């Protein structure tokens, strides 16, 4: 036989063997398997049944075995079908991942730098455990203050918030950001108007009366806390601020998550401003207590409520808080993450603070050189900060620096008002950080280098031109922060520098409150001034009466002056004896005239 025939013979034998094996496997699948017969666990209950029943049972067992074999075969087919469906599930997951990637790309393309930067969101995470300054004091000072936090909580629990007509509602959605706002109901309006009247008239007693009636009127708490602070009663001032924050917290909306980056509160709404200002004053109180880690946490919370507009200019103070909290790495990372979004390189506080953080964080010579470079860049961009800092510390500058055209006091006086205020805020916040001997010597060395090296001359001139173009006006949030820090005079502690496009449920008026007919002051004024109209507002009437009185006094005084020597012509002086004779003759003539009724 040829090789090809032998090959075909072997293939035929192999095919027959495979068919035989396949038939045996099919028979095994269809044959009854007694080992898998389900056991009747209740067989002992069927002992009285007849043999015919047992035969029927045997037949039913065989049928059951046959059905079991068919079901097993059906299950195998079903498993094969399920196995074919697994790739479909994976495709679904891939589809979801693709949609998520597309949404992320869409958000990035929309220009939401604050919402799309994962690094920035991670850096601004708020730790709920870091809101108690007493806990930080315990870590710093030991167990001496172990009862402080419990005492504050007990004071808070003594007086539960009343229903004053303050609620929080969901305002609007902007893409994936949710905005919430506080709402003042009509029940809250009379207390707010009473407070406005008391604030305009500097009536602290009326504000105290509002607090007695309500217990948690927010603007009254802010005002009384400010009065207590001016009287050096710092503990009582902090208690009023914490009470206001507690009241706001109890009226949060169920959906509102204050720790979330996507949940915001708009400062343009007047009803939200009290919560902002309470948190800001709480932040300053914590800084006063030297609890900087807690203060950094609160600063993050305020910044997260509206990071785009930053109504309280937290970006101008968060850097010094981070350095005081020894969070050098966090500050450097925050600067790199938000530099392009918030233009941090155009703020003097950020330029100098990042260099200072790098200086403290540096461990190698390379990192120290990087800190020197950052400080030199800050000195080139904002050289007059050194002049302001030395004035604050009452230190004399180096002769080279004092006479330099970019570091002199003359150049500092020529800077724009906006830059002057920015540097004033930063100097007040950071002067303690810079006056350390090691830090001051480092600053002095680099300042001399920048002032002496010719290579920095062109850069200094270029930055002078930039500053003249950039800092032409005054940002409202910077002015607001300056008032809150006490660096400039404030007209209102409860609404400093109101935003120009603000919104309010009911508006504030400057008219005085009406006084009823039975008012004591109304009756007193009517008895003193008969022309007073009882239906007229007390404030308007007082202004009118005061104006009339001033006018009458002015006319009287002017008449006395004009009736004296000014009526006598020059050169008409007479002797004393002649004047007395004329006066005597005039008096005799008056006595001879008859008296008329």
Looking at this protein, list some descriptive labels.
single chain, 597 residues, mainly alpha, Serine Threonine Protein Phosphatase 5, Tetratricopeptide repeat, three-stranded mixed beta sheet, 64% helix, disordered C terminus
Characterise the protein shown here.
This protein has 597 residues and is mainly α. Among the domains are: 63-109; 130-313, Tetratricopeptide repeat domain (Serine Threonine Protein Phosphatase 5, Tetratricopeptide repeat, Alpha Horseshoe), CATH 1.25.40.10; 329-474, no CATH class; 516-555, no CATH class. 64% of the residues lie in helices and 3% in strands. It has helices spanning 3-30, 51-109, 113-116, 118-123, 133-141, 148-158, 189-200, 204-214, 218-230, 234-250, 270-288, 292-305, 318-324, 328-342, 348-361, 365-381, 384-393, 399-402, 409-414, 417-434, 437-452, 457-470, 476-484, 520-528, 538-562, 576-592, and strands at residues 166-174, 177-184, 263-265. Helix 14 (328-342) packs antiparallel against helix 15. The radius of gyration is 43 Å and the shape is extended.
Write the SSE topology:
Blueprint lengths: L2 H28 L20 H59 L3 H4 L1 H6 L9 H9 L6 H11 L7 E9 L2 E8 L4 H12 L3 H11 L3 H13 L3 H17 L12 E3 L4 H19 L3 H14 L12 H7 L3 H15 L5 H14 L3 H17 L2 H10 L5 H4 L6 H6 L2 H18 L2 H16 L4 H14 L5 H9 L35 H9 L9 H25 L13 H17 L5
Parallel strand pairs: 2-3
Antiparallel strand pairs: 1-2
Organism: Caenorhabditis auriculariae
Pfam families: Tcf25
Protein name: Transcription factor 25
């Amino acid at each position: 036989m040829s090789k090809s025939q032998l090959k075909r013979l072997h293939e035929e034998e192999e095919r027959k063997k495979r068919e035989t094996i396949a038939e045996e496997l099919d028979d095994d699948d269809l044959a009854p398997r007694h080992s898998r017969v389900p056991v009747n666990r209740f067989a002992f209950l069927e002992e009285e049944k007849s043999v015919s029943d047992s035969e029927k049972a045997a037949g039913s067992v065989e049928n059951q075995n046959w059905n079991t074999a068919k079901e097993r075969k059906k299950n195998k087919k079903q498993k094969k079908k399920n196995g074919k469906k697994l790739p479909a599930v994976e495709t679904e997951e891939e589809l979801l991942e693709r949609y998520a990637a597309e949404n992320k790309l869409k958000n990035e393309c929309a220009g939401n730098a604050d919402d799309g930067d994962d690094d920035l969101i991670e850096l601004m995470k708020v730790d709920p455990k870091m809101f108690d300054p007493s806990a930080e004091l315990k870590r710093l000072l030991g167990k001496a203050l172990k009862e402080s936090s419990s005492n504050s909580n007990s004071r808070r629990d003594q007086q539960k918030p009343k229903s004053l007509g303050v609620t929080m509602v969901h305002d609007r959605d902007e893409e994936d950001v949710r905005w919430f706002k506080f709402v003042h109901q009509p029940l809250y309006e009379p207390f707010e108007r009473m407070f406005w009247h008391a604030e305009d008239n500097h009536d602290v007693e009326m504000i105290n009366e509002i607090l007695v009636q309500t217990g948690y009127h927010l603007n009254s708490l802010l005002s009384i806390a400010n009065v207590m602070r001016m009287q050096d009663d710092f503990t009582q001032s902090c208690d009023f601020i914490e009470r206001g924050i507690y009241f706001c917290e109890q009226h949060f909306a169920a959906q509102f998550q204050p720790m979330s980056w996507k949940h915001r509160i708009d400062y343009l709404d007047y009803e939200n401003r009290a919560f902002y200002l309470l948190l800001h004053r709480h932040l300053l109180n914590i800084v006063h207590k030297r609890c900087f880690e807690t203060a950094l946490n609160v600063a993050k919370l305020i910044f997260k409520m509206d990071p785009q507009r930053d109504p309280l200019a937290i970006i101008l103070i968060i850097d010094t808080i981070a350095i005081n909290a020894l969070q050098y790495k966090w500050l450097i990372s925050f600067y790199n993450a938000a530099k392009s979004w918030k233009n941090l390189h155009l703020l003097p506080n950020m330029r100098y603070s990042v260099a200072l953080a790098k200086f403290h964080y540096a461990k190698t010579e390379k990192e120290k050189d990087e800190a020197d470079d950052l400080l030199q860049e800050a000195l080139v961009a904002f050289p007059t900060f050194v002049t302001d800092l030395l004035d604050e510390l009452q230190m004399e500058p180096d002769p080279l620096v004092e006479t330099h055209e970019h570091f002199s006091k003359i150049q500092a006086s020529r800077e724009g008002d906006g830059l002057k205020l920015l540097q004033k805020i930063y100097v007040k916040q950071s002067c303690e950080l810079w006056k350390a001997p090691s830090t001051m010597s480092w600053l002095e060395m680099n300042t001399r280098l920048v002032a002496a090296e010719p290579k920095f001359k062109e850069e200094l001139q270029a930055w002078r031109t930039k500053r003249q173009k950039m800092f032409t006006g005054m940002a409202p949030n910077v002015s607001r922060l300056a008032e809150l820090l006490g660096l400039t005079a404030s007209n209102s502690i409860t609404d400093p520098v109101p935003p120009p496009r603000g919104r309010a449920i009911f508006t504030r008026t400057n008219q005085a409150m009406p006084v009823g007919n039975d008012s004591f002051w109304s009756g007193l004024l009517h008895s003193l001034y008969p022309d007073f109209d009882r239906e007229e507002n007390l404030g308007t009437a007082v202004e009118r009466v005061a104006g009339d009185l001033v006018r009458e006094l002015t006319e009287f005084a002017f008449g006395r002056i004009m009736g004296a020597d000014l009526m006598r012509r020059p050169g008409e002086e007479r002797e004393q004896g002649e004047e007395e004779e004329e006066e005597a003759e005039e008096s005799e003539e008056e006595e001879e005239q008859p008296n008329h009724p």
